[in-house]
Amino acid sequence: MSNEKLLIGRINGVYGVKGWVKVFSHTSPLGNILHYRPWWVKRQGEWVEMKVIDSHAPQGGKAIVAHLETINSREQARELMGSDIAVTREQLPDDESGFYWTDLIGCQVENLQGVLLGKVTELLETGAHDVMRVKGEASHLIPFVWDNYILDVDLEQQMIKVNWQPEEVEQD
After folding, report:
1. Residues 32 and 87 in one domain
2. Is 52 part of any domain?
């Protein structure tokens, strides 16, 4: 089993007095975080496996709450505030494209002319299509559209080949 942890959320508050926590989800849709069990929670710099014993995402709201095994008081829940929540790669379903967005973060981006544009720092959902933020000497917002802008993704080499010109620059 791989030790690689993939962030899926963060504990950002307490809920009630019986040890429930509020969760900020990085999944889409937000409630998908509740489908992954167990969670790995970073406590005092160490990843600890924690079993989710109950949870819910209220209808219409963005608040996701969970009750974790061994956390039975508001004080214990408060100690978890700010803790990252992760899963292992094995917990994720296979992706048809062969990678997840998280795999692209940190990859170098090079255009057809061999100009290194920088590294992928994040991916943004914009509605029409997703966009890669690439930071190097300048910042670039490159639409993640296969064959048009994205030509190749080589995760082994941590390199993404793009059809993009440096003068198409988005300033920070």
Report:
1. yes
2. yes
Share of the chain above pLDDT 70, in %: 89
Q: How far apart are CA 100 and CA 138, in angstroms?
A: 25
Q: Structural domain tally of the chain?
A: 2
Q: What's the pLDDT tens digit per position in 65-111?
A: 999 999 999 999 999 999 999 998 888 776 665 677 778 989 999 99
> What's the order of all strands across the beta sheet hosting 39-43?
46-50, 39-43, 84-88, 5-15, 20-25, 64-68, 52-56
Shared-domain flag, residues 63 and 10: yes
